[in-house]
Write a structure and sequence with these properties.
Layout lengths: L14 E5 L2 E5 L11 E7 L2 H19 L12 H4 L14 H12 L5 H14 L9 H14 L2 H20 L14 H4 L4 H4 L8 H13 L18 H10 L3 H5 L12 E4 L1 E6 L2 E6 L7 E4 L2 H10 L23 H20 L12 H13 L4 H8 L3 H8 L2 H4 L6
Antiparallel strand pairs: 1-2, 2-3, 4-7, 5-6
Helix pairs in contact: 3-4, 3-6, 9-10, 9-13, 10-12, 10-14
């Protein structure tokens, strides 16, 4: 097959040409005595710029036709009449997970280790979401996927943190495609968390409390299927009794060290806790509310601490209530599942009638019990709030068990 030569330009026309990747216009030769004359446009050879060059060529041809052509070409110089168009590549937008990664890196120095561990769990979950675009349409798809894949409460948490991450991204110009977070208000539209809408204190009655203490104190272990003695839960009796005597958070007792106990056993300083995150033991300084508090010991608490303090030379950083396994910190979740529920659930099952709609107790019920007892004894809520690192409002709404107060009578 014979290759045909390129079509020749019409005589007298202005021709668009490429020269070393730049565009130029060749003028009709008859205007310059048969010589070639070019107008260099200083434009890159792109489809957009080619259209501009063709428009310029048509303008010059029109001027030639109507005898207003400027042979000096000054009239057609590109710096006066042309705008250089460069092809701009769009900046790729961050995905949902990529933005959350940057948000966590920014927030990490301000988080407690356990909080950061929880946020990492949310981050891992977000990576499973099939909708990763940051737009209003995608936000609705993301919400729908959360609701179908997990609980309302978890969805509420995810949307809350996602909204915070997007607002942060907009503030620091990391997200350029949005001016307002598409997740704004989504979490508030969902039902409240159970603990928000119906906080249920779950204190023990005096009789139940004594039964719980006796159960731990007298437990001597059981025999497993291999004919070996099982664990003696009486090991945990001092810690359970400590919970009832202080109303502290369980993790605060788990993290208590002997250096936090005064030499004369007259007070305790709660200044941290030990928790387990992703299987790792993590010490968190300060309380849940980032406070350090001094708790006065009554005679019973003072005697308890004296009775369990080792007689030998003591490392002051040692835990007051160590785990029976290698002396590390007790794992709260494991203790609750493997010890607490085995001993305590049968007690409350027998002591409470079917009309009692309170949920299964946890070690936090010791905190509910302490606070309820102190209110019943006439201790001001403001004082109890200081002892327990909380507020009078939270005491009345969350910890004070009305079912226990029903048993009290005026003095």
């Amino acid at each position: 097959m014979t290759n045909l030569p390129p079509a020749r330009a019409k005589k007298g026309s202005v021709v668009v040409q490429t020269n070393e990747g730049r565009l130029r216009l060749q003028m009709p030769r008859h205007l310059y005595g048969g010589n070639r004359k070019f107008l260099y446009l200083n434009l890159a050879d792109t489809p957009e710029n080619w259209k501009l060059a063709e428009a310029k060529a048509q303008l010059i041809e029109s001027d030639i036709k109507f005898e207003r052509f400027d042979a000096t070409l000054k009239k057609y110089k590109p710096q006066t009449h042309l705008t250089v168009i460069e092809t701009v590549k769009p900046v790729p937008q961050l995905t949902l997970t990529e933005l959350f990664t940057k948000y966590l890196e920014f927030k990490k120095p301000t988080y407690k280790p356990t909080t950061f561990g929880y946020m990492e769990t949310l981050h891992e979950y977000l990576g499973r979401c099939p909708h990763q675009s940051l737009s209003e349409d995608s936000a609705l798809q993301i919400r729908a996927w959360f609701l179908a894949d997990t609980t309302n409460s978890m969805t509420k948490r995810l949307l809350t943190h996602l909204n915070a991450a997007v607002r942060w991204g907009i503030k620091f110009k990391i997200v350029s495609s949005l001016t307002v977070s598409p997740f704004e208000g989504m979490a508030a539209d969902l039902p409240k968390h159970n603990w928000e809408s119906d906080p249920e204190p779950n204190a023990f009655t005096p009789a139940e409390k004594q039964l719980v203490l006796d159960a731990f104190k007298n437990h001597k272990g059981t025999w497993n299927g291999r004919g070996e003695a099982g664990q003696k839960f009486c090991f945990y009796y001092p810690m359970v009794r400590f919970w009832f005597l202080t109303g502290c958070r369980p993790s605060e007792a788990i993290g208590l060290r002997w250096c936090d106990v005064s030499a004369d056993f007259s007070y305790i300083v709660f200044n941290g806790s030990v928790q387990h995150s992703k299987g790792k033991e993590v010490r968190v300084e300060g309380s849940k509310n980032n406070k350090r508090r001094k708790f006065p010991c009554n005679e019973e608490l003072s005697q308890l601490l004296q009775s369990i303090k080792p007689q030998s030379s003591l490392d002051r950083d040692k835990l007051v209530f160590p785990s029976p396994v290698k002396g590390g910190a007790i794992n709260y979740n494991n203790f609750t599942k493997q010890v607490w529920h085995k001993l305590v659930d049968p007690i409350t099952k027998n002591s409470r009638d079917a009309s009692d709609d309170r949920k299964t107790t946890t070690p936090y019920s010791c905190r509910d019990t302490f606070i309820t007892e102190q209110v019943g004894k006439g201790v001001p809520s403001a004082v109890i709030a200081k002892w327990c690192d909380t507020s009078e409002k939270v005491i009345n709404s969350t910890y004070l068990d009305g079912k226990i107060l029903e048993h009290l009578r005026p003095l």
